[in-house]
Amino acid sequence: MKVAALILAAGGGSRLGRPKAEVVLGGRRLVDLAIESCVRAGLSPVVVVLGAAWVIPMPLADSPDGDAPEVWLVENTEWSTGLSSSLRAGLAALETDAGIEAAVITLVDTLSVGDGHLSRVSSLLRDGATAAVATYRGETRTPVGLAREVWSDVARTVVGDEGARRWLRAHPEMVTEVECADLGPWIDIDTAEDLPGLS
Question: How many Å apart are CA 62 and CA 166, to the nearest integer?
Answer without folding.
Answer: 36
